[in-house]
# Entry
Amino acid sequence: MAATMTENRPGRAIALKLGAVFLFTTMAAIIKIATETVPAGQAVFFRSFFAFPIILVWLWQRGDLRHGLKPSNLMGHVWRGVFGTVAMGLTFGGLSLLPLPEVTAIGYATPLFTVVFAAIFLGERVRLFRLSAVAVGLIGVMIMLYPRFTIGGDAVSQMATIGAFMVLGASIMRALVQIHVRRLVQTDSTAAIVFFFSLTATILSFLTWPLGLIFGWSGLVWVSPGLEAGALLIGAGLIGGVAQIMITSSFRFGPVSMLAPFDYASMIFATIIGWVVFSEIPTPAILIGTGLVMTGGVLIIWRERQLGLDRSKAKASSPPQGTPS
# Structure
């Protein structure tokens, strides 16, 4: 496996992470415009397909491409691809129905579900502190979703309710992705994880085209996007590829625990873009709920950092085992 060069350069790490977060938010805004006329499955295909060449070139330049083509846990990559592609499709569907800041805010629920799933599927011990953080965050999610709990109402309100639950479902899928990634990093390189997700997302999203033709579901039937929407979709793919490279590169210059809180900068970017481009202003429920979800997320990040430090100390203090090689 190619050697991974890391440096402790927090300034560069933060700049790369913030740049990636901004690009992902910009990509979401572009997808929101495109999905006014294009189904979510088709948007996922463009996002994945046009990001794929950029990622391939990047892996080739790093000398990691041959490692990306040699997975140790192929089915793990398949399941990671399935969950990730479904999450992307649900998010894109939600973007077509909800304001950008609301989609961004509900998406912050992912770390909360990740803690729960880590206890269920990985057997991780979750003590009172992290459970309390999850509870605070989930209260925030409920506050954000409560205005969407409408029975009856006009068609627009009903579709917004569907959109909110689609984005919540995407958060759950992304949490499952995190669980699978935690398993994959034990056997496979980052190059393999990036490569096979891009590949499987492209293939799975392409399958929505024949499914739409066979079943005639309006949400799957591909359309001719037109020049403007086509350009937007291609641009979203290119931007997504660059953002994925930037966020991966940021971890070469700083630890995950330091960079994780900067994910919440997406709310600032989403609010600005939503206001300028779509004339969207976050409601009080979104702002209050976002604050609680952020609080729960930051507490989880802080606790994960503390547990990581404790594990490192325990490992350093334990006597060496086995015979030196």
About this structure: The CA atoms of residues 120 and 294 lie 23 Å apart. The two ends are 18 Å apart (CA to CA). The longest helix spans residues 284-317.
